[in-house]
Amino acid sequence: MLKHIRRRQLSASTQFPDLDLHPLLQRIYHGRGVETLGELDLKLNQLLPPGQLLNADQAGAVLADALASDRRIVVIGDFDADGATSTALVVSALRAFGGQQVCYLVPNRFEYGYGLTPEIVELAAADNPDLIITVDNGISSLEGVAAANALGINTLITDHHLAGAELPLADVIVNPNQPGCEFPSKNLAGVGVIFYIMLALRAELRNRAWFEQRPEVNLAQYLDLVALGTVADVVPLDRNNRILVAEGLKRIRGGQARPGILALLEVASKDPRTVVASDLGFAVGPRINAAGRLDDMSIGIECLLSEDMAAARSQASRLHQLNMDRRIIEQGMQSEALQILAKLSLGEDAELPVAMTLYQSGWHQGVIGILASRIKDRLHRPTIAFADGDEGEIKGSARSIPGIHIRDILDAVATRHPGLITRFGGHAMAAGLTLAREAYDDFAEAFVLEVARHARDVNLQAIIESDGELNPEDFELNLATELRFAGPWGQHFPEPVFDGRFSIVSQRLVGEKHLKLVLAPEGVDTLLDAIAFNVDLDVWPNQSIAQVEIAYRLDVNEFRGRRSVQLMVEQLVAV
User: Fold this and answer.
1) Sign (positive or negative) of CA dihedral 544, 546, 552, 555
2) Exposed, middle or buried, 257 (CB in 10 Å: 0-12/13-18/19+)?
3) pTM to 2 decimals?
4) CA 367 → CA 77, 295, 376, 379, 430, distances in Å?
5) In Å, how far are 240, 369, 498, 535, 575 from 546, measured between CA atoms?
6) For the chain, how are helix, strand and coil distributed in percent, rounded to 5?
7) What pLDDT, in 10s, does the model give residues 236-253?
8) DSSP 353
9) Whole-number Å distance between alpha carbons of 429 and 47
């Protein structure tokens, strides 16, 4: 599906007349809602204070008591990159604060499912913990917390997902999205929440003179983990999250990253000295996620916890292989999904349904989230992909588009059709759910109808937001470099995209499915390298096409020590 290119509506004036910024960059910031110079100050001292996060101080006191009494603490993580970084951060930090009995447990996705379930509590109870801490999960774990309470185990829930109608009866809950929390940034990832709790814990320990007998912990050392988890979880990069990510990237570029992150960048062929947010999101994050998708997330956590470079390299190599295996599985599933979609087509004039559900026996439960995302991107429709779960059940992973709050959709379906969904949870753009296998057809119908009710004012045409055309003099290395590092760019603060018409000087296929181009802007003698990934091989390469309209990012290509401007093509249309 071709995307409609829509240029951002910008006023003629800028908000930063006294700032030494390229006029194009001023325009870009203004187009992303930056209105004051202060919003571009991403220093660590500009972070929102931990005291504004509901119950963070109380959580700090609970943890300080646990450390002072040498209580046994078990951290229950999640099987994605946010969960892995959250787990690594809290385990590392509590041990650095002096915790002698801190361990972790991550539910295996295929055996136990998501969150603090009664089964996981039973497994954790074998270690006789005094305190269970959840990270990146727990806000919907009513039964799991009840099971812990019955065993006399205290619980600290730390999460960022949306709360349901009822909260678990935990000792403390810290979640910016729980009722009553007025923390200004609702977009913290799970790793951001636990980082804030560590800040509150350190403040509490200072008050107790804890550091008179031991060195004070510098929590900035964990910002590489915070940056990775925040970017990988695709949470909106509001100013507070941009501060966390910017400071984490600064540490990585400055050679202060932990061995596991350095090793993961190495296997991904990324130079830590020039790393940007997209490298964390597209290179490091997927390799950690592969462990939770195909095997055991403990592999990823151990990589992040490693203090030895040789061990970290070994673990990163294993994660790299898992990610390659995941790609092969995903390609097969995507091919099967496209065959299913082809059968739905009723002709060229047929309209797509407003939402898509896909299920095929044999699909890999750990990869359906990526499949749903790929189909959502392809069709610009909310999409749920299902795979076989426990006996008699199927598990779904949902991905949505702007304007359709997918968790609210599932909640509405559950309300209209009691018992149809066994369980569900998530947030605006992603969610998970479980159904009885025989309920699939009824759910698919109910889901499409519910999306249709909410989609009346939603644009189902995919959009590329463009920052306009570039002037001929803008195609230069210094500006491309400045744009690359001007973010951090990410969700709700997107990397600049431009559009324009170009003449094709040459074109050739590389890597079997990528199109390498040499382009000339209209009316200019400048020649520019460009690359379009995963092109339609039924169309490209095509030597008869002389001109194209493209949407693209202005980037820097580094090859054998030479740096040059390169256009990263987002959309390519013959004219």
Assistant:
1) positive
2) buried
3) 0.93
4) 19, 12, 14, 19, 14
5) 46, 39, 20, 17, 8
6) 40, 20, 40
7) 999 999 999 999 999 999
8) P
9) 25
